[in-house]
Amino acid sequence: MSTTTGYATHSATTPLESLSFDRREPGASDVEIDIQYCGVCHSDLHTARNEWNMTVYPVVPGHEIVGRVSRVGAGVTHFAAGDLAAVGCMVDSCGTCADCVEGLEQYCQSFPILTYNSPDKHLGGMTYGGYSKRIVVDEKFVLRVPANLPLPGAAPLLCAGITTYSPLRHWGVTRGKKVGIAGLGGLGHMGLKFAHALGAHTVLFTTSPGKEADARRLGADDVVISANPDEMKRHAGSFDFILDTVSAPHNLDAFTALLKRDATLCLVGAPAEPHPSPAVFNLVFRRRQIAGSLIGGIRETQEMLDFCGQHGITSDIELIRMQDINVAYERMLKSDVKYRFVIDLASLA
Ligand code: NAP
Ligand code: ZN
């Protein structure tokens, strides 16, 4: 074991602060990474404040991790010291259930081991995430970062990127489709970039009129203020797919009404409280669907990173010091982030 430093919170109502804790020595199949940058996901905030009622304290959040390999175990074949490496939301899974075998570890029937706030089978206690200087992860869960991507902007691909890429691919978004992205935050801005890169006619739904120009720059062909019923009505029954990244409860009926027959509203936003219940008639009269999606598997995450390398896609970020994390959380809650905070771990002594 060796000691590292991170930022943790000890309760739902206290700020994050410095914490020293242990990382395991790299085992035969492990990769040790010196973390350089870690993105700040709204899930970090939901967890730090126990909004999903499953946080075990202290919690060290962070699952958008990029850095350099410092050591590898004797059996590691795909990474060597000095390589760039990345870790997303998962660090392990059972590896044997039908979902894991299919490469869909995020749906592991024994539940994947998440990068933070999951039981740690090596050291006991819980896993600690990327708001820290160092992490040790089995190489099966370590990703390669294309060398042409700027590293700070690549970090958010590990969650915001894959969480939007996976459903866009699963529901067949291509040229000729009309696709909506609801919410322009960390996930939403990646959703815009991917839908645009896949060739779809891309529409952003936002509650923030001030974000329109940015949305167009990020890939939106059209921008709709979702609180304006007249603007929404103009798009009734016209969408092939809508991806909802909103982090707070809101009216889903306003979005299902915009779908074509047989089309899908996919939820990736995970608010603590339920959405107001959907209007059944919106669904049954047009055979529309409401679905959900969770991050993406390891194979698809690598595919997404390679796609980003080929298309030069990264996240638009605001680089912050570790010490600024509590202010960043407050700004994220006000939808005031352009469009992902990324922590520079060099700021952590
Ligand atoms: P974020 O950066 O805070 O963005 C959320 C956006 O939602 C805001 O920028 C805002 O966009 C909109 N919004 C916020 N409050 C709203 C309200 N009361 N009514 C309507 N719109 C509101 O968050 P994020 O990191 O992108 O994460 C978004 C959600 O996805 C979180 O709940 C997170 O936990 C979840 N998540 C899920 C997965 C998964 O695998 N399914 C993975 C990662 C994250 P506008 O200003 O444009 O309206
Ligand atoms: Zn996340």
**Which spans have pLDDT < 50 for at least 5 consecutive residues?**
none
Cα-to-Cα separation, first versus last residue: 19 Å
Bulk shape: globular
> Mean pLDDT, rounded to whole units?
97
- Count of DSSP-assigned helices: 11
Main sheet properties? 6 strands, mixed
CATH topology of the largest domain: Quinone Oxidoreductase, Chain A, domain 1
Tell me the name of the CATH homologous superfamily of the largest domain: Medium-chain alcohol dehydrogenases, catalytic domain
Class of secondary structure makeup: alpha/beta
Q: What is the share of helical residues?
A: 10-25%
Bound molecules: NADP nicotinamide-adenine-dinucleotide phosphate, zinc ion
If you compute it from the alpha carbons, what radius of gyration comes out, rounded to the nearest whole angstrom?
20 Å
- Please tell me the total number of domains: 2
Total beta strands: 16
Strand portion, in percent?
25-35%
- Any guess at the CATH architecture of the largest domain? Alpha-Beta Complex
Question: SSE order, as H and E?
Answer: EEEHEEEHEEHHEHEHEHEHEHEHEHE
CATH class of the largest domain: Alpha Beta
